[in-house]
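User: Here's a chain of 925 residues. Predict its fold as C-alpha cells.
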Amino acid sequence: MIGFDSNLLVNYYQSKLTGLGGASSSGGGVATKYAPTAPWSPQAKPVDSSALLKSALQGSKLINEGAATLDLSGASSDYKKLFALYQGLNTLTALAEKANTKNLTSFDSNRILQAFTKGMAEVTSYVDTAKFDKVRLGFAEVADTARASIGIARAKTEYVTAPLVTGLATNSVPGFEGDVRFDIAIKQVNSNLTVQIDLAEMGAQSRTLPNVINHINAKLEAAGVTTRFAQERIPGAERSYQSGGKTIKLAPAPDQWAMKIKTDITEKVTFQAVATAPAVYLAQKVGDPDPDGKADTKDAVFVNQLLKFQTETGAVAAPLQGAGEANWVEGRVFSKPLEGAIETVRATQVAPDGSVYVLADITGEAGGQSIKGARDVALMKYDSAGKLLYTRVVGASEDAKGLALAVSADGKVAVAGSVTGGLNGAVDGPLNSSASAALADKSDSFVTVFNDKGEELWTARRGARLEDEASQIAFGADGNVYVAGRSKSTMPGATSIGGWDSYVEGFGVNTKGEPVALFTQAFGTAADDRPAGLVVDGDALVTASIEDGRAVVRRFDISGGAPVQTAMRDLGDLQGGSITGLALDGGQLVIAGSTRNTALDAGAVTRAHAGGVDAFAAQISADLTSTPSDAVAYYGGAGDDQAAGLAVSNGQVWITGQAGGALPDLTAKGTVDGFLARLDIAAGAVAWSQQFTGKDGHAVPGSIAIAQQGASVLDRLGLPTGELSFSSSSKLTAVSALRAGDQFNISANGGRPKAITIAVDETLESLMLKIRRETGFQVKVETTVTDGVRRLQIKPLNNRSVIELTPGKDGQDALSVLGLKEGVVRASKVEDGKTVAADGKADFYGLGLHSGINLSTPEQVRHAVSELTQAQGVIRRIYTDLRDAATPKSVLAQRAAASTGQAPAYMTARIANYQAALDRLTGGG
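Assistant: Prediction complete.
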C-alpha cells in the first residue's frame, strides 16, 4: 500500500513561486534573479566581523564600494552603495559592541573610541555625498512634519487643590471642621473686592464638599464676581497583585475629591488667612540606600520630598493626618514628592510672596524640562500648598551643580554653583577653565540671577584655571550679589594662599544689565579651606568657613569697594565635623553645624554635648567681639547626630538633620530618622522638636526654610496663601534648557544651511519669523496646540519642498532642546497602500542616526548599538523595496498568493483528482 500526502504538492508549488534571494523560477526551472544577493543573505559569503574590527582599528576606511560585489549583471549601482554602507554600519556596530567588553585597557578603549568617531564621520560624509539613482537617503529621520516637544503653556484660569475627601463627594471633610475663616481678595479691572468666608455661617448644615462649595459660591455671586468654586473628581488608581506569575486585578482604589477654583483673565484671586502660624519647609531624601544588602549593586530607589510643618497651634488648629498618609508625625502639613530626575536638593528659600524655591541637581527631565548634558541645575518654585508653579534649568552643556540659593526682598532669585563644559550666554571671566582644551574638564564658578517669573536676568561664569565653585550667595540691600566659594588655583584678581582657597566676590550690573565683577579676594589658610556660610550686614560681608578643620568666622568691610578684613573669630576645632549654615538675627550671628568638640569657643555652653557627634547652634556678636550673650547649645542623643540645615526667622532658630538614634524626649521611628528642632540658644532649651522617618525607614533631611506666617487654615483646604499664579513666561529660554547663542541649522530645497541662533528673549513668534526669513519664506512654520501648550511646527511649503534640519555645535545645539528631530522634512502621499514622496521623485529614507552618537558611557554604547542596528534595518528595507520594484508584478502577485498558503483553484482541483485516484488504488489507506 502506498501513502501520499497531497500537501507535498502544495508546498512544492509554493516554493516554486516564492523563490529565494530575490529570484523566481523560469520556464526551464532556473531561478531568475531580480536583485543581487545581499550581504546579509544566507546565500552570501559570511562576513568576518573580527577582520572588519581589526581593519577599522588600524585606521582603514569602513566604506569601500570596490569591495561590494554584485552577482547580477546590469544591477543598479545603488545596490553597491547600499552594500558598502551596510558593511560600514556593521563595522561601527562591532566597534560599539567591543567598547562594552569587560577589562579593556585604557589604550584599547581609546583606540576603539577614536576608530568609532572617525567611522561615524565617514558614514555621515558618505550619506551626504553619495548619489543614488532610485532612492534618496538621509543620515537621520525622514518625516512629514517637524514638531517641537517644548512650548509655551497657555494661560490657565483654573486651580485644583490636593484631594480633600475619599469615597463619595458627600462624605464629611475633616478639614472643614472647626474654625474655618479666610478671605478671598479679587482684583478686577476697575475695582478691588474682598469676600469673607466663614463656615460657621452654614449653621447646622453638614460641611460636605458640595455644601461648602455652594456656600462659597453664594458669597462670590453676591459680590458680583465671576470666580467660582467647583468639585473635581480624581479617579481611583487601578490596583493589582502578582500571584503564581499572573497579574490579578483588584477593584480600583476609591475616588478622591478636590476643590477647583475657576476664574478668568479679568480677575486676580488672592487667598488670605484670618489667623496664621509659623511654617517650616524642609527638603529630604527618603528610601533604603541598599535594599539587597550588596554594596556592588545599585538598586536603591530614592524619592526627594518637600515637607511642610506647622510649629504652633495657639491661633491655628493643628494639621490633620490625611487618609493613608505614611510616616506622618504631629505638626506635618504635607509631604510632597519632588517629581523628576532629582539627584540632590541643595537649598530651600521662602519668597516674599509666600512661595517656596527649591534648588536641586538633576540628571534628567524635571518639571517638563529636559537637560543637555549629564547633570544640570534646576530651580523649582512651589506655592504654599506644595503645587509646582514652574521649573527652570540653567542649561549647561555638560555638567553643573547648584550649591547656593538666595531670594531678594523684591523677589529676585540668585543661584550659584559650579559648571563644567559650555554655558552659552554667560559673561565669562578671564581665566575660565573652559577657555583651555587641556583644562576643559575643570569646573568654574557661576552665578545666575532670575526675576520672579523665572526669567534669567544675567549669568556670570568666573573661575580659575583649576577647579573652583561658588557655594554661598546673598543679596545686598543695594541689589548687588555677593558670593563665597573655593578654588584650587588663583581666582582672577586674587592671590593664592595654598590648597583649596576660600574667596569672596561681588557682582553688580552695568547700564546694559550685564554682570560686572566688583572684586574678588581670597582668604583662609595654606591648608584646604571651605566656606560654609555668607551673610550681608550693612556694608560688611560675614563668612563662616572650615579652615584646616576649624570653624572660623570672618568679617569684611566692603564700604570702600575691595573687601577689608576687620575681624576674625576662631570657634575651635570641629574634630571632623562641619558647618551647615550662617544667619543674621538682629545684631547677632547664628552658626550651626555638627561636631565632636564638647566645648566650642563660642561663649557659654547652655546645652551640653550628649556624646559622639552632636548638632550645635551658636550665637555670637555680629562684629565678632566676645560678649556675655555669646552662647552655644548642642543638640543630640547617644548616637551620631548630624545637622544639615539652619534657618532663622523672627528670633527663632531652627535646625534640621539626621538622627543617630532616639533624640531627647522623642522616639526613633525608622532605621535612619530625620529631625527638626527649634532651639533657644540663650536658655539652652528645645522649644519644639520632632523626629520622623520616610520610605523604607530612611529619611535624610537636607535643607530648611521658614515662613513666619506660612501656616493657616488654608493648608487644610489645599489652598495657597497669596495670589493664584497662572501667568508663565513666554520666553523659550525660560521654559527650557535653551540659552542665548544656542543654534540649529535649516536648509530648504537644497539651499545652503542657515544657522538659527537663539536670542535671550526668544519667543515662539520671534523664532518662527527667524526661520521664515532665513529660508527665504520657503517653509511653512506655525504653532500647534496640544494639552494646552503651544509648540513650534515646521512643514513643507508644498509637495516639492524639502527641508533639512541639522544640529548646532556640540554644547550649543538648540535642535535637541527644542525637541525637533534631526533629518529631512518632506511631503508624502499614499499610493497603492505605500507612503511615497509627494514630489514624484525617488523615495526618501532616513537611517535614523543622530550626530551626537558616541561611546562615552555604557548607556551611550547601548544607545549607539540600537541606532546602528536600526540603520542596518533601513538598508535592508531599501533593498527589499528596490528588489520588489524590479520584479514583475505578476511574480509579486504569485508570491503574495503563495505567502497566504492558498494554491490557485485549478491546482487545488488537480490535486484533489490525484488524491481521489490514489484513494481508489489504495482503498483509502
